[in-house]
């Protein structure tokens, strides 16, 4: 029996103004602790995650802290993002206010994410640059390793600006689980999803003493609940702090793409030197190997639709049947153009031609605008991400907490409902008739036994090989070269 989540997974209904206000006030109260976590030191309970002080991995300084009443350690990861500002970070975080953008971001940065949805937008501004904070209720489910059931979370997210102890500008994206939101009911009995708990967690972007750079701090304290021992959770928790580095690298990459887009616009229209592509206008899509992804947008005026395309993780992408490649010598992104009329909906179909052997995905950044006869232009970012084919899977390696306990495959699905006026229902269809999903959610006893047998056989084989290698090195090689031990990882 194939496992599938129903479209009406949650029975959503509008929230009262009083309840929205209560949630917003609750989220506001989290900000001081998040800001304080940026500058706290060993005197406040923070210790290095590793044997060295400080512990630095991939340019991220990692610390841990034991908090009262919580058996799961809090992790802090900090790194620097050059050529970036708090205002840039604010608009970027506030733009993730639809299920499509949420899914895209989580799938790109966390290979364990199965699906996600923005259930309710409690508050957002007229634009991404105004002073109105973003407040929303979010749900997501993440794949767990081997026979362990998947974990899902329902949390309240709040994005706003604040001042640190030195009076410098900061942006805070704070997240914590909410237990009193009955519309996001527990799915353990119906879907074998164990509801985890997000404690003090989120991103803080703060100005530094060096102009043009900011520090990103990722604070995370997540309890996956269930039968996973807390000492195991704490052993692998430090890897969560490395997310700060992944966000840094993604931001640097996007800035490079924006520069190329801007340069392309200026070269094509030197009289419009003031024209700039703003980060919030740039859309992105994940296109998996040998699959297509369709982006739908609507023209607001008559004119010519121009789309600038920049595929990453590869040099070319197919858009509407034509092959587009980045000119490596100039870095100029390829463009696509089409005559359109006001109200016309245009589907941009991207295809990834990568070899299916590696199951790679490409992230396509694109910027669309309509040039009218009067010379005006309007950007048309995508608003809908259609489902990928049922054969889509993502085998990208990641360092999520559950992934570090053991490694597994993450099936993917895409479907979305982006309305703001009404609650956004998660329209989720996990890959149908994929045995991997059946084993994940409903592991049969015989298949679990086979997994143990396979893991045990693999472990024995590796140990035998290690013993033989040690014998060869110690008896036949000169120069006093010692035998190295073999590290064996067995998935159970």
Automatic annotation (TrEMBL):
Pfam families: START. Residues 376-399 are annotated as: Disordered. InterPro entries: START-like_dom_sf, START_lipid-bd_dom, START_lipid_transfer. GO terms for cellular component: cytoplasm. One of its GO terms (molecular function) is lipid binding. CDD domains: START. Residues 132-236 form the START domain. PANTHER family: PHOSPHATIDYLCHOLINE TRANSFER PROTEIN (PTHR19308), START DOMAIN-CONTAINING PROTEIN (PTHR19308:SF14). This is START domain-containing protein. It comes from Triparma laevis f. longispina.
